[in-house]
Amino acid sequence: xxxxxxxxxxxxxxxxxxxxxxxxxxxxxxxxxxxxxxxxxxxxxxxxxxxxxxxxxxxxxxxxxxxxxxxxxxxxxxxxxxxxxxxxxxxxxxxxxxxxxxxxxxxxxxxxxxxxxxxxxxxxxxxxxxxxxxxxxxxxxxxxxxxxxxxxxxxxxxxxxxxxxxxxxxxxxxxxxxxxxxxxxxxx
Length: 188
Prior knowledge:
By secondary structure, this protein is mainly α. It folds into two domains: 9-94, RNA polymerase sigma factor, region 2, helix turn helix motif (Rna Polymerase Sigma Factor, Chain: A, Orthogonal Bundle); 116-181, Arc Repressor Mutant, subunit A (Orthogonal Bundle), CATH 1.10.10.10. It has helices spanning 9-19, 23-45, 48-65, 75-94, 122-131, 134-145, 150-157, 161-181. Helix 7 crosses helix 8. The longest helix is centred in the first third of the chain and has 23 residues, at 23-45.
């Protein structure tokens, strides 16, 4: 039985309908979550066409796997994980991390601890993230938005923990440089 505190009554009804293969329930679920999941897809993929493909594949997976939702954690969080994993599978197929390398532990990279990101509009930030090189973007999204530790990122992407840390550090530096170029002030 699904915990009703983790789902709205509307979601519970849609979940049950989708489990039965009801097309109307599937359409309603799609209409309710498509725009939010598209944001997840575009954050990972970086371009609209790839994001649309991942959105389509993600919903196919969602409807195929909805019977596995046990009510542990929020329903939207469960859905978000499906779309993030779908995007990551596409990125793995493209082998976006083949050039990743570990940062030499002796090399000291100082990252700005400014709150310049707070100065950005969310659309500006999303636009910058979608422009990141794919390897940086994948790790950045997993670490920052999904809250995954480097050990889990490394396992999912088939890279070392050091390479995950390296990609995140380089992604942050890349983002920091773009923010500076936009005329925002950073500390560092």
